[in-house]
C-alpha cells in the first residue's frame, strides 16, 4: 500500500483548474474529482492546506490592463478566490471531509479570518484548510499567497496543480519540440523566466528551501501519486 512521503502539504489550485472543459466559472464535475482525491489523501493521514486562485471568475491583472485601478481589480480577484474556496468546501463537506475556509479579508459570515496558529491547529486535527483571498493585499498573486501560507504552516512541499504535466523549456501547447524537466533549480526557473509561479513566489521558496512539485491535475490520482513520492511532474528545488 502506498504511503505518503509528505506529512503536511500545500496544494495550489489555479482558478482555471476548476473550469474543467469550460472557459469560465465552476465545473462541479471537476470540483468533485478534485475533492475525491483530496479526501483520499486526507484519509491517508496527510495534513492538507489549499490555496485556490480566482481566474475562472475574475482576473485582476486583465482588468487592470483594460484600465481598472490596480488595487480595486486585485481586491475583486481576491473575492473571486473566496467564491471558489466556498465551492470546494461545500463539495468536501458533502463527502464528510471536515474543512475550514480562512480568508485574508475578514468576512466572518462566510469564513474564518486567517489566523496562523488556528490554521495549524485545524491541520493537526485532520481538517482541510482552504486559504482564501490571497495575502489580503493587492499587487500579490495567489502563487505568492501559496508560498507564504506554505511557509507559515511549515508545509513539506508546495504542490502546484496545472493543466500541463510539468515544467517545460517553452510553452508545450504552442511548441511541439518543448522539452520537459524532471527536476530544475529555483535559479534556473527565474533566469529562464519559465512562469512556473511568479518570481516573488519562487524567490520565497528558494530562500526558505521549500520544494515545489508541478504536476497535471487532470491526471487520475496525481495528487496521491505526488504525495506518495512517485515520479510525477517536475520538482523545483536546489
Could you please describe the fold and organization of this structure?
- With 238 residues, this protein is an alpha/beta fold.
- The protein has one domain: Carbamate kinase (3-Layer(aba) Sandwich), CATH 3.40.1160.
- The chain is built from 8 helices and 11 strands.
- The chain has helices spanning 28-43, 60-65, 70-94, 116-124, 142-152, 186-192, 199-207, 222-227; strands at residues 8-13, 47-52, 99-103, 112-113, 128-132, 157-162, 167-168, 180-181, 183-185, 211-216, 234-237.
- Helix 5 runs parallel beside helix 7 (199-207) and helix 6 runs antiparallel to helix 7 (199-207).
- The radius of gyration is 17 Å and the shape is globular.
- The mean pLDDT is 94.
Any key phrases for this structure?
238 residues, alpha/beta, two-stranded antiparallel sheet, 8 helices, 37% helix, globular
Strand content: 15-25%
Q: Domains counted in the coordinates: how many?
A: 1
Oligomer: single chain
**What's the name of the CATH homologous superfamily?**
Acetylglutamate kinase-like
User: What value does the average pLDDT take?
Assistant: 94
- What Rg do the Cα atoms give? 17 Å
Biggest sheet details: 9 strands, mixed
Q: What structural category do the secondary elements indicate?
A: alpha/beta
How far apart, in Å, are the first and last alpha carbons? 30 Å
According to DSSP, the number of beta strands is 11
Order of the strands making up the biggest sheet: 4-3-5-2-1-6-10-11-9
Apparent shape: globular
- Helical residue percent? 25-40%
What is the H/E string? EHEHHEEHEHEEEEHHEHE
Low-confidence stretches: none
The CATH class turns out to be Alpha Beta
Amino acid at each position: 500500500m502506498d504511503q505518503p512521503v509528505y506529512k503536511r502539504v500545500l496544494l495550489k489550485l489555479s482558478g482555471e483548474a476548476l473550469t474543467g472543459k469550460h472557459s469560465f466559472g465552476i465545473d462541479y464535475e471537476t470540483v468533485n474529482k478534485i475533492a475525491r482525491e483530496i479526501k483520499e489523501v486526507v484519509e491517508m493521514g496527510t495534513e492538507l492546506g489549499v490555496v485556490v486562485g480566482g481566474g475562472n471568475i475574475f482576473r485582476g491583472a486583465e482588468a487592470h490592463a483594460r484600465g481598472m485601478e490596480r488595487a480595486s481589480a486585485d481586491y475583486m480577484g481576491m473575492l473571486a478566490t473566496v467564491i471558489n474556496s466556498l465551492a470546494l468546501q461545500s463539495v468536501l463537506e458533502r463527502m464528510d471531509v471536515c474543512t475550514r475556509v480562512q480568508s485574508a479579508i475578514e468576512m466572518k459570515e462566510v469564513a474564518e479570518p486567517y489566523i496562523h496558529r488556528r490554521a495549524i491547529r485545524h491541520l493537526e486535527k485532520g481538517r482541510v484548510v482552504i486559504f482564501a483571498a490571497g495575502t489580503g493585499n493587492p499587487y500579490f498573486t495567489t502563487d505568492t499567497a501559496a508560498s507564504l501560507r506554505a511557509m507559515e504552516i511549515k508545509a513539506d512541499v508546495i504542490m502546484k496543480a496545472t493543466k500541463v504535466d510539468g515544467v517545460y523549456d517553452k510553452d508545450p501547447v504552442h511548441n511541439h519540440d518543448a522539452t520537459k524537466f524532471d527536476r530544475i533549480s529555483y535559479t534556473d526557473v527565474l533566469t529562464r523566466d519559465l512562469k512556473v509561479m511568479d518570481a516573488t513566489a519562487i524567490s520565497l521558496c528558494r530562500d526558505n528551501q521549500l520544494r515545489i512539485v508541478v504536476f497535471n491535475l487532470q491526471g487520475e490520482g496525481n495528487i496521491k501519486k505526488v504525495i506518495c513520492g512517485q515520479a510525477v511532474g517536475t520538482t523545483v528545488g536546489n
